[in-house]
Amino acid sequence: MTNDEVKGVLEQRVPPWPADLPRELRSKSKQNPPGAGYDATPDELAAIDEGLAGDAASEEKIKAAFVVFRRA
Is the pTM of this model over 0.70? Predict the structure, then answer.
């Protein structure tokens, strides 16, 4: 597939980003510059702990999740 063909497929299948997205991303990057750290909320920390405490998902569960997410 040539570069032009790939670009054509992407233009047909990938929706464009909103025009104001680059400005929004720049704004957010200034709020949390790299290395500035991030203070997770207690709820986020609890969710992380819960995820780390459990077992890894089985291959069957992962495949089932992909089936559900691909429908959305």
Answer: no
